[in-house]
Amino acid sequence: MAARMGLRVYYGGTFDPVHAGHLSVAREVRDALAAQVFLVPAADPPHKDITHADAQARARMLDLAVAGEPDLKVDRRELRREGPSYTVDTLREIRAELGPDAPLVWMVGGDSLVQLHTWNRWRELFDLAHVLAVARPGSHLEPVAVAALAPEVEAEIGPRRRPAIDLNSSAAGAFAVFPLRSQRPESSTELRRRIADGEPWEEGVPAAVAEYIRRRGLYPVRGVTPASL
Known about the structure:
Layout: E1 8-13, H1 20-33, E2 36-41, H2 55-66, E3 72-74, H3 77-80, H4 87-98, E4 104-109, H5 110-113, H6 125-128, E5 130-134, H7 143-149, H8 151-157, E6 175-178, H9 188-196, H10 207-216
Parallel strand pairs: 1-2, 1-4, 2-3, 4-5, 5-6
Helix pairs in contact: 2-10, 7-8
């Protein structure tokens, strides 16, 4: 019998830009679950407004952010695929590559969990992977709280709830909550606002990412065009 593949966790998002909070979550999940964590930048995110940096720039910032980090990797597959970046299509592609028995996890934020029923073919996600919800500031992921906000979602995930540490024991189909040890204040929206308003922002991103943003003129100061920097 072939050896069982270690747990793979896929962490999707726009990463516009990637920041210290993203990396903190990825490290905590990696360390707690002994997993490889793949950060998956979306090319055309169907649940987000237009992105501010183009897809290749966002992926390059991820490369710089995870450089030298063991078991944190960047997966560009959604950038190579035309059309909206539907998670179910991404997971179907990954599952075809890994085979039916590999433990596979898709990670979402608590805010995204209560919107799960709006995702394309969302129930099929559990045929392909486990779903791991990370508790962000202000998110309540207890069954009663999820049922109040998204009863259809709780009806689906309720029977699937497991401890996060158990996700490596099967290939797909479970739901777990990952309790972060610490809540991070960073958000991409707030970082873009601080840059636009000329406020300090560099401490919110890795140094190499800050340098890339400055060098490329991404997220310019309000009223200042990149050509005039």
